[in-house]
Write a structure and sequence with these properties.
This protein has helices at 2-29, 35-44, 49-61, 69-81, 85-97, 107-119, 123-135, 143-155, 159-171, 179-190, 195-207, 215-227, 231-243, 251-263, 267-282, 286-297. By secondary structure, it is mostly helical. The chain is globular and about 60 Å long.
Length: 307
């Protein structure tokens, strides 16, 4: 009996040595990593699911250590299998965007992990599960279920869930169209500094969606959105300056904001920029220029290029 106890003690001691050796070697491999990364590593190796997720985020975003999607996936996977909802959501993101996995993306696996995360009450997981249903990625498209999950996400305080909820109300996807509720969603977002929400609130004021038309307020919210880096907000500021909506006409400022928007990725702004180049080179009349814009405008993929 004493021999067995001694064997157990010796076994635990040897195991601790191996564990200590692995941690030290890992720490050396981490080089000049920030102290918080080492702290996460030590806790993660003790099967702490939150630390595993946090360490995964360090690798995913390159925080305090060299970015490594494969290692991010590894630690997210451990966290997810240990039942942590944020780890489950982040593992879903790896599958959805093809980061750290063999395939470019795996929507079915992403859907499975978003479902786990969402059903465990994670607001981000609920929003991404809504995205899967909305776009039909990894599951059959279902606007009603998309709306249901966006609503849960928004109720749990996730701003992107609230944004998507507003979009569903605006276009009547998964729910009866309700401009007033869309306006309320965008107002809440805008007043909390959400750039896309500010742009959409500007759109509501410009077009009288859920509220009275107010060009001055439209310009005000577009401008806030633009200054917060939203490409569509920047485009809309340019549009307002070009057409004198809520502000004085100023073609120089319009062009400046279109350039900013194009640089930030707005397809519509890039279209106007290219049309302006063609007009300059081929000396198009304004009628021909407008016709070119209209023809190319219809090729843009989003349902409304201003939001």
């Amino acid at each position: 009996m004493l021999l067995n106890i001694n064997n157990i003690v010796i076994g635990k001691y040897l195991l601790s040595l191996f564990y200590y050796k692995d941690v030290i070697l890992d720490e050396r491999n981490f080089g000049n990593s920030s102290d918080f990364v080492i702290k996460y590593l030590k806790s993660a190796r003790k099967d702490d699911s939150i630390a595993q997720c946090n360490l995964g985020e360090c690798f995913y975003y390159g925080r305090g250590i060299t970015q490594d999607y494969n290692k991010a996936f590894e630690w997210y996977s451990k966290s997810a299998h240990n039942g942590y909802s944020e780890g489950q959501n982040n593992l879903g993101n790896c599958y959805y965007y093809g980061n750290g996995v063999e395939q470019n993306y795996n929507y079915k696996k992403a859907f499975e992990w978003y479902s786990e995360s969402a059903n465990n009450g994670n607001a981000r997981g609920q929003n991404y599960l809504g995205d899967c249903y909305y776009y039909g990625n990894g599951v059959e498209q279902n606007y009603n279920k998309a709306f249901e999950w966006y609503s849960k996400s928004a109720s749990n305080g996730y701003v992107e869930g609230l944004y998507n909820l507003g979009y569903c109300y605006q276009y009547g996807q998964g729910v009866a169209q309700d401009y007033k509720k869309a306006f309320e969603c965008y107002s809440q977002l805008a007043n909390n500094g959400h750039a896309k929400g500010q742009n959409n609130l500007g759109f509501c004021y410009r077009n009288g969606i859920g509220t009275e038309k107010d060009y001055n307020k439209a310009f005000e919210w577009y401008f806030r959105s633009a200054n917060n880096g939203c490409a569509k907000g920047q485009f809309n500021v340019g549009f307002c300056y070009e057409n004198g909506i809520g502000t004085d006409k100023d073609y120089n400022k319009a062009f400046e904001w279109y350039l900013n928007s194009a640089a930030a990725g707005s397809a519509m702004a890039k279209l106007i920029q290219e049309a302006s180049r063609i007009q300059s080179e081929q000396k198009l009349t304004k009628k021909s220029y407008d016709q070119l814009i209209d023809e190319e405008f219809e090729k843009l993929w989003w349902p409304d290029p201003y939001i």
